[in-house]
Amino acid sequence: MNKVKGLSSKDLLGLREMPVEDLNLILDTAAGMKEIISRPIPKVPALLGKSICLLFYENSTRTRTSFETAAKMLSANTTNITVAASSAQKGETLIDTVKNLEIMGHQAFVIRHNMSGAPHLAAKNLAASVVNAGDGFDEHPSQGLLDIFTMKEKKGNLKGRKIVIVGDIAHSRVARSNIWGLTKLGARISVVGPATLIPKEIEKMGVKVAYDIEEEIKDADFINVLRIQKERMGKGLIPSLEEYHLLFGLNSRRLTKCKKDVVVMHPGPMNRGVEISSDVADGPYNVILDQVQNGVAIRMAILFLLLSGKSSARENE
Fold first, then answer.
1. Residue (of 315, 316, 312, 317) closest to 77 by Cα position
2. In this structure, are 206 and 278 located in the same domain?
3. For 222-244, how does the pLDDT look when each residue is reduced to its tens digit (9 = 90+)?
4. CB 275 within 8 A of CB 248
5. Could you give the angle at which helices 173-184 and 20-37 cross, rounded to 10 degrees?
6. Which residue spans within the chain are E strands per DSSP?
7. N or C: the chain end with fewer CB closer than 10 Å?
C-alpha cells in the first residue's frame, strides 16, 4: 500500500472542527481499505508493530469490534480495557489511566466515554493519537463518517441531496456527527421527531426541524433512523414506545410515499417495532449491513492515516 498524506491533526475527535479536506481524505482512503476487506486474506502489514488501546467506559458491540477488526487487518496490536474491571473502579482518573497505558507503548487510544469531552481531555494530555468512539451527547465521528461513506457509495456526490434524520435527536451523538459532516459536503438535512426529543436551537447547525415524518420523507434521498435511547432519557419525554412507533416509526406503509430509490439507514442497535419495523429493517431499501461493513473500512482508514507516519516504541529503540 502506498503511503498517503496524513490527517492535519494527531487526533480524530469530531467532525465539527474537521477540515473538509481531512473528511474527504478519510472517505477516499476507506475505499481502498474496503478492497482489502474483500480479499481472500484481508490483512496488510501497514501498521505492523503499532499498538492500539481500546478504552471503553460504555458498552459497545459494533464500534469496539469494528475498531479491533480494523486494527488487526492492518496488523496492529490491540489491547482491550474493560473499565468495569480496571483501576478506574478504584478511583483512578482518565488522565492517569491513559498516561500509564501510553508509557507501556500504545501509540493510539480509541476512547468511548459517557462524559462529553473526555476524549478531548485525553488528547490534550497525550502524545499518542486519540480517536473519539463516542462521548456523551457530543459526537460519534467514525459513525458519522461511515454513514457518509455509505451514502456516497449509493448516490455519489451528496451536494443537494436530502437526508432526513428521524428519532431521538436530543440524545444522539450520531445525529450531531452526521449533521456536521454532511453539511460540509453540501447536503440538505431535516430532523424529525417529537418536540421533546429535538434539541433547542438545533436550526443553528444548519438543519430544518419537522414533526410530520410522512411529509418530510416523501422527497428524501436517505432516511437515517436513530435508536430511541431509553437508557439516556428521563421519564415523560415520550408517552410510550407504542405511541412513538405510531407517530414516528418507519414502516413499509410510510415508505410507499417515498422516492423509489430512497435509502434507509440505522446506526444500530435497532429496537424493532419501535423506531423501525422489521419489514423495513430486513427489506430492500435498507443498507444497514453495508453500514456495518463500511464501519470497518472507515476505521481502517482512520487508524492508518493517524498512525502510518508515527514511529512505534520498538522502532525508537
1. 312
2. yes
3. 999 999 876 655 566 888 889 99
4. yes
5. 110
6. 51-56, 77-82, 108-113, 129-135, 162-166, 188-192, 208-210, 222-225, 263-265
7. C
The C-alpha atoms of residue 210 and residue 62 are separated, in whole angstroms, by 30
* Pairing, β 51-56 against β 108-113: parallel
pLDDT at 112 over 50: yes
Model pLDDT for residues 263-311, shown as the tens digit of each residue: 999 999 999 999 999 999 999 999 999 999 999 999 999 999 999 976 5
177: confidence class by pLDDT, cuts 50, 70, 90? very high
Residues 67 and 125 in one domain: yes
Per the DSSP assignment, residues forming a β-bridge with 81 are 55
CA 176/CA 114 separation, integer angstroms = 16
Check residue 254 and give its pLDDT. 97
CA 77 to CA 72: how far, in whole Å?
Answer: 7
* Residue 24, C-alpha cell as written in the block: 474527504
pLDDT at 314 over 90: no
DSSP 3-state assignment of 163?
strand
3-class SS at 211? coil
pTM for the model: 0.93
